Structure formats: structure tokens, C-alpha cells
Amino acid sequence: MSLDIVVCEGYAEVEKNETGYCEKNHNKGRFMATSVMSVADLQRLLDTLTERGIETIGPTVRDGAIIYDQITTTQELPIGHQEVQDGGYYRLKATSENSLFAYTMGPQSWKKHLLPSQQHVLTAERQGRGFSVEAAPDEPPARAFLGVRACELAAIRELDKALLKGPHASEPYRKRRENTLIIAVNCTRAGDTCFCTSMGTGPRVQDGFDVLLTEPYKALPSVCLAEAGSLKGRELLDELELAEATEAQLRAADKAVSNAADNMGRQITTEQLPKMLQDSLSDTHWEAIAKRCLNCGNCTMVCPTCFCSTVVDTTDLTGQTAQRIIKWDSCHTLDFSYIHGGSVRTSGMSRYRQWMMHKLSFWTEQFDAFGCVGCGRCIVWCPVGIDITEEAARFRERVSR
Ligand code: SF4
Ligand code: SF4
Prior knowledge:
This protein is an alpha+beta fold. It has helices at 12-16, 39-51, 111-114, 150-163, 171-178, 196-199, 231-240, 247-262, 273-279, 285-292, 298-302, 348-367, 377-380, 388-400, and strands at 35-38, 55-62, 65-70, 81-86, 89-94, 118-127, 130-135, 143-148, 180-185, 211-214, 223-228, 309-315, 321-328, 338-339, 342-343.
């Protein structure tokens, strides 16, 4: 796979062109030549965001994992940490590489910050024989997501399709999305369970970002190459007055991203995949998977594209106050498919099959893309290590026999 970094000549020609492409069709969505950003420059960027009242959410080590949380300094980044991951296995290991962004996929995705696992919708108070209803305040803070990977941008695109458009558009999601600045990072290391190249979602970030960083070198002092993908991003980088990247730095960045593409931990064959799985709907192998699957729903919770939610009403013990909450739901629960009189998917097998079929087959009919972006989280956080890539390969093998 060839991953070209093309330096676009300047802003003017892109600005004239409404499509966001320069006249040579270079650098989709990019506005300026690539600059060099030191750790100190990155800190200045974080400081600028803080001064503007923008909260930065970025990768940081907590409780033995790399999670996304509020950070204000570069020292909070997972420097010197990498993950070892496999089916049902996740550990952090210390490394002598002092990269800022050498980690891959932790348990959390950006879904947590765009579509929180629990959202308070309203509170109702009993008032005599009636009641009053008050909507929950929902003014999300302005945020910058630092460290968004190509597969995660692809996942956000899928969330956008489901939650910004159509009859079920979510106003809270729209507000969060509009209030979010995206500082993406190209992957220069592939995780043990990553397969974004198979899904066509990475490891090189193509669009959908405000600023894009690439960290080609592994030793400190770390240097990132930075490019803008929006007017907001360009304005932020302009303020830092960064020097332009040299040819050697561009080549090193290109090589580092190519290296990630060439070293994916997993792969999946997507050719005719939706049809192949639909041809396998009655295969007895679903039963074999169901014998292992606990229907715990972990795979849906960690998946960056799973967007299903349910509405829960609760009252306090006096019956005076009630609250309505929207919370993440999972197709692995019995209640998920409850319609009048009972659940449609009563067996664990039918629930696992629904999950996998939606990711790799039905989603293509609904949203014209796969519902899986190849992040590998469902493999790592499945307590019994069920691996979606292995299961897809098993069905293909059985269909071809
Ligand atoms: S596939 Fe794994 S993570 Fe998903 S519900 Fe089954 S046991 Fe849980
Ligand atoms: S199905 Fe699994 S590998 Fe695919 S996007 Fe969801 S969590 Fe990642």
C-alpha cells in the first residue's frame, strides 16, 4: 500500500475551491504545507486551547489502560507505554521508545464523549395531582479530541450517519459534534488486533480533522509533523508559527505510516462479505460461537460505531421525583428485541448473529459502509476472546467448501 504525503502549495487555491481540494486534487481537505511541531509546540497548542476555554480530551494512562480523559499537559500523554493485546487480553508494557503517540487502541472510543453512556433527559416532579417536567441542561463544553486515529474518524463518520440525519437525529449528539475540534494522529504502529487496512479505514487519516499530526520518530525529543484540515485548524497552527517540514521528515512520516499499514495484527477479507454472511445465516457454526459467547455485551460497549440506546424512567423512593435517562443498549440483551408480548431474539445465538451480521452485512445496506472500522476492540475486550476476523474467515471457509 502506498501512502503519499503531498505538500500542497498554499492556502489560496484551496480557499477558492469550494470542494476543499487544491486544483491538483492534492490533500483532500488540507489547507497548508506540513509543519514541524515539537513537544513544546504541542504544549503551546494545548495552552492555547485552554486559554480559549476548550477542554482537551486526550490519551492518558489510568488503571493499567490507556483511556481518553481531560489533559492539559503533554506529560499526561502515554509516553513510554504500549499495549500488548490479543483475544480477551490487554496489558500495558513499558517501552524505551519515548513517543507521544505510539499506543494503539485502548478500551474507550470517542463515542464515550460524543454519545455518553448515560444522558439525563428530563426530571419530573409531582405537584399536587399533576406534575411538572424540566428538561435536563445540556450545553456540552467546547472540546478538542487529541489523538483521534483514522479508524476512529471512520467510526465517527458512521455515528454521524445514524445520529445527525434522518428521523432519529439526536440534538445532544449534534451539539457535542459541533463543539468538538479534532486533532487526529496518523498511526505509525499497528496494534496486535488492528485490521483497519482490511476495512479501508486506516491507518492514514484522509479527512474529517482540524489538525493532523504524524510522529515519525521514536526517540525524544519527539517531533510531529502537523497539517491543517480546516480553517479552524489552520488558524491554530498559524498562531504557533511552525517551521515547514523538510523532505527527509516527510519521507520519514510516510515510511512510518506505511510501516503501520504493513504490520496489521489481524485481517479480514471483505470481498463479497455481506452476501457471504447472508448465505451463512443458517450455518450451524453460529451455534458453535454461541456456546462460547456470554452475551455480556462488552463487544457492543467498546465498539466505536455501536450507537443503540434505550430509554429508562426511574422514580425516587417517595414517588415524588422521576428521571428519564437515555443509556447505551446492546443487541446482546434479551430486552433489546422486546416488542409487544416478548423478545424476537430469544437465543444467545440469534443475538450474537444479529451483532455480527449488523457490523459486517446489514450496515452496508443501511449506511453504505461496513459497521466495523477494524479497531479490534471487540476482540480484546471479549472475555472469552471471540475474534470477529476469525469468525468471518471460518464462515468464508465453510461457504467455499
Ligand atoms: S462476543 Fe464476547 S464480548 Fe460480545 S457478548 Fe459474546 S462474550 Fe461478550
Ligand atoms: S466490530 Fe469490533 S473491530 Fe469492528 S469497529 Fe466494532 S469493536 Fe472495532
